[in-house]
Design brief:
Blueprint: H1 2-10, H2 32-37, E1 45-46, H3 48-54, E2 58-59, H4 62-73, H5 84-91, E3 95-99, E4 104-106, E5 111-112, E6 114-120, E7 123-128, E8 134-140, E9 145-146, H6 148-153, E10 160-163, E11 167-173, H7 174-183, H8 185-215
Parallel strand pairs: 1-5
Antiparallel strand pairs: 2-3, 3-11, 4-10, 6-9, 6-11, 7-8, 7-10
């Protein structure tokens, strides 16, 4: 495991390839083993492989989706340093799909092994109340990410995400993220840095709202 993190720190393309066995990883990968090791959890893992047919997701051609992904994702400052070739290689670890409107692509309280990057369309981010009502937390649009927290920490989803319009999405699952970190450490580090930045910004926004709420009482 130490060698894997050493590779992430160096992040150079000249780093010798390390196999899963050398890195001390199981076949299920670095992040996905977190799910396997949580023996106390009895909740079934919600995978994209199971969700995709349920929401009518259809694959789209890479030559159509990759330029859109590169334009949106390349605007992030942690990814902007990547060359067009590196962005194209990163896209090889993603699935590109189209999902019709009114489809729940992420379920509240489930444990998921994937996150979504919105390339086109609008999704509702709702918190479902115990009595069945929905509180609208946000609307996600092109460039936004959904489900990254559960992907990283194996925790339950906080909200439900439903397509309001037909949407084009990029899907990142735990296994492919593992492979990117192992075999393309520079790309994996750029993606994780971007995730960390976005999560930090979200936390600051929540903290600001809480501070404003407390100061008004």
């Amino acid at each position: 495991m130490k060698r894997l993190f050493d590779r992430l720190k160096r992040g150079g393309d000249d780093t010798p390839a390390v196999s899963k066995e050398d890195a001390g990883l199981s076949e299920s990968g670095f992040f996905s083993t977190q799910f396997a090791d949580r023996a106390e959890d009895t909740q079934e893992l919600a995978t994209w492989a199971a969700r995709a047919p349920a929401v009518g997701a259809t694959p789209i051609e890479r030559k159509q989706a990759e330029p859109l992904f590169a334009r949106l994702w390349g605007a992030d400052r942690y990814v902007a340093a990547l060359s067009p070739d590196e962005l194209q290689r990163m896209s090889q670890y993603l699935q590109f799909v189209q999902v019709p409107a009114n489809k729940e692509v992420i379920g509240q309280d489930e444990q998921g092994d994937y996150m979504l990057i919105v390339l086109d369309g609008t999704l509702a981010v709702d918190r479902i109340q115990p009595w069945g009502g929905r509180a609208r937390l946000a609307e996600a649009r092109a460039g936004d990410m959904l489900g990254e927290m559960s992907l990283l920490d194996a925790g339950a989803r906080f909200s439900a995400c439903t397509t309001l319009t037909p949407c084009t999405l990029a899907v990142v699952d735990a296994q492919r993220l593992d492979e990117m970190i192992m075999f393309e450490p520079r790309l994996g580090l750029a993606l994780l840095a971007s995730l960390s930045r976005r999560l930090s910004l979200r936390l600051r926004q929540v903290s600001a709202r809480l501070s404003a709420l407390l100061s008004s009482t």
